[in-house]
Amino acid sequence: MQEAHSPAPPPASTPAPTPVLVRMRAEDNVAIVGNDGGLPAGTALPGGLVLRERVPQAHKVALVDIPEGGAVTRYGVTIGHALRALTAGSWVHERLLRMPPARDLKDLPLATAPRPAMVPLDGHTFQGYRNPDGSVGTRNLLAVTTTVQCVAGVLDVAVERIRRDLLPKYPHVDGVVALEHAYGCGVAIDAPEAVIPIRTVRHLARNPNFGGEVMVLSLGCEKLQPERLLPPGSLPLRVETVHAAPASTPGTALPILSTPAPDSAPFPATEPADAAWSHVRLQDEHHVGFASMIDDILATAETHLKRLNTRRRETVPASELVLGVQCGGSDAFSGVTANPAVGVCADLLVRAGATVMFSETTEVRDAVETLTARCASPEVAQKMVAEMAWYDAYLARGEVDRSANTTPGNKAGGLSNIVEKAMGSVVKSGSMPIAAVLSPGERAATRGLIYAATPASDFICGTLQLAAGMNLHVFTTGRGTPYGLAECPVVKVATRSDLARRWHDLMDLNAGAVADGDCSVEVMGWRLFHLLLDVASGRRTWAEQHRLHNALVLFNPAPVT
Ligand code: CA
Questions:
Q1: Domain-located, residue 513
Q2: Fewer CB under 10 Å: which end of the chain, C or N?
Q3: How does residue 269 score in pLDDT terms, banded at 50, 70 and 90?
Q4: Residue 354 and residue 284 share a domain
Q5: Total domain count for the chain?
Q6: 152 CA distance to ligand 1 centroid (A)?
Q7: Measured between alpha carbons, how far is 482 from 496 in angstroms, rounded to an integer?
């Protein structure tokens, strides 16, 4: 990245700010305006160019004359072709560009990129909760898995009661989370693509921040029966002793758990005894009235809370982090300040042996050639191609393409189209080889840099990253969004100092300092690295302090009925 700061002081008679232009690559023929509030017509730019019109902050300026049809180049790639001749010093916005077609998925380079030197980064630790299955949580939460939306109202009431009446008795538990969703019934549950929402709910239940405890709340008549959601072998099991026969006893066993004696023997005997689960079904005959349902849920929850309350943080290596990175409410600074800093941090974490997931298929589609080249093996690259092809077909089925991604806010923030947005988005992935590719809802089984294929929708991406095993989340934003998740800490990084100032108690880190010239991308990446270790150890993010929790949203490409 090249940053140019004019050394010339403004004339004494005018308060004009020192113009700041940011050009990403030497070969780029546009650069973006860094100054808060933009720059007025007539501003003398570094290098002698004079602005021909007012250009808003984060928007592009033509550095040379670009002929009609000529390529407009940023990040060293063609982000569009000029619809008319663009004079040097003029504002280049989305209405002046024609988007190039998407790269064909044939003949992509597969695992051909030279491997960067990966010097191990040792000695960094955090304070985490070690789980029975070996994973590590950054929070100690009780999660209640739901099989269907019908139970959500009852669960909401029960969760309020758990917060009020039970949590004060269990001070080492960080909170209770209802894993609510719109799936479970009224859906074509045997459709091939139903596998995506079903495995997402299954894997959400196993997120490392839930301590290996699985509590299921079902209705009874829904399509997503517990044995379909959690078939034998899908969870490491420990039989839960609360499942007793008398109707007055809370909790009923899942069908697959009904055969063994209600003692503490592992079931099945060959499975590791490292998770505990329980099940409450609202339509069970022993529920007489609403209050008995609530009492049953509370009593079952308490058995889990007792165990969770015995857990303590311990020193674990940074390699136990499973970081999900995402952006939302992006502007042209996202790809200049925050996302490159996330990329530096991603490289540090991968060098420390951690897992880093990047996602958002429509926002990496235009960089597919560099990504398939970076894959660790041809097989991983083939899976990357398959995920991109699946998503192309999914969008085509809805008669749109990747250009459906950009929002009015993106464009107001200077991002002309998805190509420009993608080039700025994919830098979050850093430079390490891509060790694995996950289909939506799959759970990560390898360390290192992982591409978890998800839509770019903030909530769907976050939900799928949670299912993949994310225990810490980084979210960059330029326009500003108060995004947060109840299941996992979300560290929000502002791309601009103006946003960081206005949203001072919502943004956890200001990467705008990079554009202000106060800090290099590398230093910002290290700052984020240390902040992540602090947050993983229990330091609360702004979203946690304000209890900002967005809903989980499942990705269901299958039909509803
Ligand atoms: Ca997003």
A1: yes
A2: C
A3: very low
A4: no
A5: 3
A6: 26
A7: 15
Kindly give the distance from the C-alpha atom of residue 443 to the centroid of ligand 1, in angstroms, as a whole number: 19
* DSSP one-letter string for 22-59: EESSTT-SEEEE-STT-B-TTPBPTTS-B-SS-B-TT-
Residue 87 carries which side chain, given as an amino acid letter? Answer: T
Q: What pLDDT does 389 receive?
A: 97
User: Which residue, 148, 155, 141, is CA-closest to 298?
Assistant: 155
- Residue 160 lies in domain: 126-314
The strand order across the sheet containing 136-137 reads 136-137, 125-130, 314-317
CA distance 198 to 184: 8
Instruction: Let me know whether 96 and 131 are in one domain.
Output: no
* CA 516–ligand 1 middle distance (angstroms): 25
Task: Based on the fold, state whether residues 424 and 276 are members of the same structural domain.
Answer: no
CB 527 within 8 A of CB 510: no
Task: Report how far residue 56's alpha carbon sits from residue 35's, in angstroms, rounded to the nearest whole number.
Answer: 8
How many A from CA of 360 to the centre of ligand 1?
Answer: 6
Q: Give the residue carrying structure tokens 């554009």.
A: 515
From the CA of 553, how far away is ligand 1's center (Å)? 13
pLDDT at 102: 87
Question: How far does the centroid of ligand 1 lie from the alpha carbon of residue 456, in Å?
Answer: 4
Residue 4 within a domain: no
How many angstroms is it from 330 CA to the middle of ligand 1? 9
Going by C-beta distance under 8 Å and a sequence separation of 6 or more, which residues neighbour residue 496? 36, 57, 58, 331, 333, 337, 478, 512, 515
